[in-house]
Structures are given as C-alpha cells and as structure tokens.
Amino acid sequence: MSEQVRDAIVIGSGPAGYTAAIYLARAGYQPLVIAGAVTPGGQLVNTTEVENYPGFPEGVLGPDLMDRMREQAERFGAQIEYEDVTETDLSGPIKTVITDGGERYQAKAVVITTGSDYRKLDIPGEREFGGRGVSYCATCDGFFFKDKPIAVIGGGDSAMTDADFLTRFGSSVTVIHRREGFRASKIMVDRAQANPKIDFILNAVATRINGSAQGVESLDLLDTVTGETRQLPVNGIFVAIGHTPQTAFLNGSLALDKQGYIEVEGASTLTSVPGVFAAGDAVDSVYRQAISAAGMGCRAALDAQGYLTRLDPA
C-alpha cells in the first residue's frame, strides 16, 4: 500500500495520458501514470500505420508512437504503473485511487484520460481481421482502401459521415443497417442518399467477416425480415455503431453526460470536482483523434499545474 501523497496522478495512457504526463513531469511534479493492465497506450496500440500524426511524414506504427510518448514521459520523471483503477475517492483535497492489484495511491491532483472503446460487432472474423480490413476510424484508415469496395455498418450520424468520407477512396461504399429507418439526422441521411457512390442494404445484420492472409474479402449478411443470407464482396469494413467511454470505474464521483462522457467546464479540462481534470476520448465524443487527445492532455496538465500552484504558491 502506497501512503505517499503525490502531486499528480494520471489515470489512463494513450496520447492524452502520456502528453499530460510529459508536461507535468517537465514541470517537476513527477506524476504517477496508472496506464492500464491490458492495453496501456490506448486504442493506438491496436493500430498499424498512423499517417496523420504530425511529425511523421512516412507514417508511424501506433504501438511505436505510444512507446515513444511513454519513454518521453519517463525521461522527465514520470512513473508508469501497469494496473487498472477499480475505485476512486476524489472528494477532499487529497484524492485516493485504488487499483486492481490492491495498491492505494494518493495525490493532490488527478488527470483522467481513460478514453473510450469502440462498440464491436462481436461476430466471427472481427478480431482476426482487426487492422487488416476491419476498422473503427474512417479518417484514420480510409486511405488504405483506395479503389476497393467498402462497407460501413451503422445507422447513425457517424455512419453517414464515414460513408460520405470514404467515397473519396473506395470504388464503392455500402451502408449496412439492421433496420429500415435510421438514427441519423435527416440531413445526414439525405446527403448520403444523394451520393451516387453510396449504396444501402437495410434490414440486414453482419454475421461473419471472411478473408485470407491478404485481408478481408467478404461479409456475410442476414436479412432480418426474410431470414435469407447473402455474401457481400468487400475489402474494407468500417464499424460505426458508437463508442463507450471508459468511465464506469468513477461510480458517480464526477458529473457525466447522458452518454457517460466526463463533463468539463467550457474549453477547459476542469471537471465537477476541484483538483480533478479530464482529457481525451473520455471527454471528447466528437473528434476522437490522437492529435486532439494529445492537445487536450496538454491542456489538462496545464490546468492541473495551475491548480497545484495555487495550492502551494511558494
């Protein structure tokens, strides 16, 4: 059990967490980063080539980018622990964080960067072809499917936006939705339906993703009305059925919106509890990019630094 009261703890890793740690460490606060036990580094550790992160004109592998961020944070004095947070007490001037290993950490300031997770289809082939034809980020991976047939699964605004964006690359884009109607706003549906490169398969659910060592080759579909099955030839499958913010461990200790994202004050990273800050995809339900998460991690660190300075002006 750790009884030391630290200046700052960062819960989570990824671009937001590691950037917050870099800034706090360079300011002399020696933050503890509780990076997670299973996937430290966030969603990018499951991403192959990242071509849109500034400073890497030839691209960079997602795991390599996260390793370099972590090493940079450690260089300036951040301590990394690979555990999951299971319980918090964020009230009062000293915050308490408890991990799945039974460790109890305390700090004056806490930065939460636990991110969100893509909702999955949970069908055969999805995990196998992750990063080899199955994607959850059109802006990240659309370029890799130039002149290839693409499927987008979903019926909300994100699915319509992704489908419209992907027509820049794919030879065709097919939107697959389980119902006749859409959750998306009418203007987004109208825009997608007006795009000649977008086709729709409605009242259908994906049941299996097929492929080879070269990647995805087809998608099995089940008609929810007739019960008939069919196979759609595709090389890229973009799943756009929503995200789940990783905030359940907070157990009501911070104000969340109706979707479970942490609420912050305006353009700041201040949460509903003094001394607690939040950044990245646990807050951002709109942009969800590595670069925007990193920028928000920087802001969280500066907000936390300002808070700590006010606690101890000397």
TrEMBL record:
One Gene Ontology term of the biological-process aspect is: removal of superoxide radicals
EC?
1.8.1.9
Q: Which InterPro entries match?
A: FAD/NAD-bd_sf, FAD/NAD-binding_dom, Ferredoxin-NADP_redctase_2, Pyr_nucl-diS_OxRdtase_2_AS, Thioredox_Rdtase
Q: What does the UniProt keyword field contain? A: Disulfide bond, FAD, Flavoprotein, NADP, Oxidoreductase, Redox-active center
Q: What class of enzyme is it?
A: oxidoreductase
Q: Which GO terms describe its molecular function?
A: thioredoxin-disulfide reductase (NADPH) activity
Cofactor note from UniProt?
A: Binds 1 FAD per subunit.
Kindly name one Pfam family recorded for this protein: Pyr_redox_2
Please report the stretch or stretches of sequence annotated as the FAD/NAD(P)-binding domain.
7-297
Q: PROSITE patterns from the xrefs?
A: PYRIDINE_REDOX_2
Instruction: Name the SUPFAM superfamilies for this protein.
Output: FAD/NAD(P)-binding domain
Q: Name one GO cellular component term.
A: cytoplasm
Give the protein's cofactors: FAD
The family line of this record is:
Belongs to the class-II pyridine nucleotide-disulfide oxidoreductase family.
Q: Subunit notes for this chain?
A: Homodimer.
Q: What protein name is recorded for this chain?
A: Thioredoxin reductase
**Species for this entry:** Bifidobacterium actinocoloniiforme DSM 22766
The organism that produces this protein has a lineage beginning with:
Bacteria, Bacillati, Actinomycetota, Actinomycetes, Bifidobacteriales
